[in-house]
Amino acid sequence: MGTSPTPSDDVFVVRRSAPLSGTIRVPGAKNSVLKLMAASILAPGETVLSNVPAIADVPVMADILRGLGADVDLDLAGGVCTIVFDDEPDWHAPADAVSRIRASISCLGPLVGRVRRCRIALPGGDDIGKRGIEMHLEGLEAMGATVVQHADGVEVRAEELHGAQITLDFPSVGATENLVMAATVAEGRTIIDNAAREPEIQDLCGFLVEMGARIEGAGDPRIEVEGVPGLTAVSWRTCPDRIEAGTWAVAAALTRGDLLLENVRPGDLTMPLMKLRAAGAVVEEGADTLRVKAEDLEPVNFVTLPYPGFPTDMQPQFMVLLSQAQGTSMCTENVFESRFSFVEQFRKMGADIEIDGHHALIRGVSPLRGAVLDGLDVRAGAAGVLAGLVAEGETIVRDVHHVDRGYADVVPRLRSVGADVERVPASDVELPASDA
Ligand code: EPU
What we know:
CATH architecture of the largest domain: Alpha-beta prism
Largest sheet: 4 strands, mixed
Strand order of the largest sheet: 21-22-1-23
Strand content: 15-25%
Helix content: 25-40%
Structural class: alpha+beta
Radius of gyration: 21 Å
Mean pLDDT: 94
CATH topology of the largest domain: UDP-n-acetylglucosamine1-carboxyvinyl-transferase, Chain
Number of domains: 2
Bound molecules: uridine-diphosphate-2(N-acetylglucosaminyl) butyric acid
Shape: globular
């Protein structure tokens, strides 16, 4: 069953809201489920994924897998995705769907593993800076593959795929995932040093082990994979979305509210929770819940880094929070080169943020006023919605298809905890002449 793409010309209209209060259930992780779907390429038979979030990137990944020959049944309401590869997958990934999501590059490792070749267009995704794939390609070359660059993408072939000792320049999430996936069915042992350690990598490795892979060290900087002749399709529950949980935790503190978040793994959020507490929030951790409330907000400094550092995917939301803290905070962005593009939009609301290279000085408390925000990526879009909750007047967040990529049903879920937010067709909104 397919799903229709979300209309992209809607806008969110956000108004100053009372403190948010109530319960939000957090779905499965965007940045895990897309990789789990790609990993299904590695095994013949039926893969069943549960806790699948109803986000827009999931049907796009389903289309990519269909283009590779899979039968995909997507029950987004029930959170289940069933993928069946009866025959050997095609090796040529469909360019139109691939160009729409960054995670499409995660098909590279499994295809090279299973069918020993792959042709894939360069992936799309957010506009947050240069997003090369040379670490993915160099790692596969070390495993015996040859890479040919085409104008529109790459072709990778490996007559023989063997284990290798690979040291990544940077603990890239995508490169670690692709190399682990290819290595599960390569000849011999692969050692990846300076590997990414994100919870989503651990989820993927857990899934691969369930499929029969031999992997040690998932979550550590060194991952070792002993290749096996083949994997078996299995069922797996996607890990919770720590970034969604973190976004709502910020919303609770920002609005001086009190939110209970369910289906969370607090241990995946150690650093953001530490910073939230330093900013004055009260955070109660349960086994799979988080309760976050706040009154006065204090400034804090934070530095984005690969896990277990502070996640870059929560940087814009945190900037909004700190704009409402009494004093000056500093943020240093180390993962993406253009992730401060949100600041330009946020300044339109009255935020006092000064950028110097990859540092941002955030001066609070800035009284925020509604503005029209656009050109935002998935996290900046979410941050724009948060800012609107504490701004005077009306905030219009355009290009909401970006937010749809990572957050399902934002409007009903936020409304259920007291947010004044609605989603309307852009044509229903009268914009100031400067923004029309
Ligand atoms: N990089 C290279 N060359 C490579 C690989 C990466 O230069 O071969 C650079 C990137 O340009 C970037 C940095 O290394 O500056 C980090 O990239 P990484 O490979 O770690 O990130 P990714 O796999 O492309 C995933 C998430 C991102 C998240 C990052 C970092 C998915 C689909 N995306 O991207 O999620 O920010 O890891 O944690 O898993 C989001 O959800 O909003 C989002 C952007």
